[in-house]
Amino acid sequence: MSIIIHKQGLLATVQGKQRYGYRDAGIGPGGAMDLFAMHAANYLVGNEEDAAVLEMNFPAPEIVFRKDALISLAGADMDACVDEIPLPVWKPVLIKKDSVLKFRKPVHGSKLYLAVREGWIAEKWLGSSSTHLKAAAGGYAGRSLEKGDVIEFGEPSFFLTENKILPWGFTSQELQEVYPVNKAMRCICGAEWSLLASSSKTIFSEQSFALNNQNDRMGYRLNGPRLFTEKPVEMISSAVDAGTVQLLPDGNLIVLMADHQTTGGYPRIASVIKADIPPLAQLNAGDEFRFTIIDAAEAEDALISRQQKLQEIKAAFRQQYQKYFQH
């Protein structure tokens, strides 16, 4: 059972669970940029949360299905269609053999996840099927997908005569809780926050920043007011993580993302909380947002609340899946 990439997209990769336990070797967790969307896509088709998915940017690849499949799209809206019929995001869809999946234009967001029932079959490296581009390992030959690539998936347990959108999915209210309209990224103060000049602390908390066009899976560079420390700082390399906000020598900021390095030598002035990395990951170049500083207890509560909500959603979708396919 497989698909074939009919037309190549921009940096489409296979992503799976994160890769922990190798930071001492300079290998970070990696995985999906927007973990919420990845987990959601899997839940919609009855998978476990870490089943391999395709992470796509626009322009996204054109895909031909060589066999019937149950799929879902989650994350960005790229005006998807199958055989020219519009497809929704955040709902499961039955796709019949020989159907062609296309993405016509970017509507909002930047990262779209394609899940298939039973998950994509991918190469594992250090216990994960996530693509590690620098090591050229994991996923599909350790690289982004190209025209002609064939990706296998598990055997479907149904036979289709037509494409069909299934009745369960995410509500707009559930999505607004994860991707708020105000685009305020909550963060906690970093290890070097105290080194910032008082005026820069105020600017960081009260003014807007925008995503630079120099951004990738390693980090998002920001445009906006420049920040400065009280006095020049020289640091040894220290541990960093996804969400770490670093102050560059020119006064600009960079937020580290999924494929970040494991150590860095720039001041770590803040860290975007885990619950807000999904909306951050969905920004496009030029999108503006603000930072809101909260304390560690609030950050922990937000993450616990998100995880509990996901477990509720997982159980509800699994029940819907079982009910539908038992008939």
What does this structure look like?
This protein is an alpha+beta fold. It has two domains: 2-177, no CATH class; 184-294, Cyclophilin. 19% of the residues lie in helices and 30% in strands. It has five helices and 21 strands. It has helices at residues 35-44, 172-178, 198-206, 277-281, 296-325, and strands at residues 2-7, 10-15, 53-57, 62-65, 69-77, 80-82, 85-86, 92-95, 100-103, 108-116, 150-152, 164-165, 184-189, 208-215, 219-223, 238-239, 244-247, 253-256, 263-264, 268-272, 288-293. A seven-stranded mixed beta barrel has the order 13-20-17-18-15-14-21. Strands 7-6-9-4-1-11 form a six-stranded antiparallel beta sheet, with no helix packed on it. It has a six-stranded antiparallel beta sheet with strand order 2-3-10-5-8-12. It starts with a strand and ends with a helix.
From the alpha-carbon coordinates, what is the Rg to the nearest angstrom? Answer: 20 Å
Mean pLDDT: 94
Outline the biggest β-sheet: 7 strands, mixed, barrel
Q: What structural category do the secondary elements indicate?
A: alpha+beta
> Strand order, biggest sheet?
13-20-17-18-15-14-21
How many strand units? Answer: 21
- Determine the N-to-C terminus distance: 24 Å
- Treating each run of at least 4 consecutive H or I residues as one helix, how many helices? 5
The helix-strand sequence is: EEHEEEEEEEEEEHEHEEEEEEEHEH
Q: How would you sum up the global shape?
A: globular
Helical amount among residues, as a percent range?
10-25%
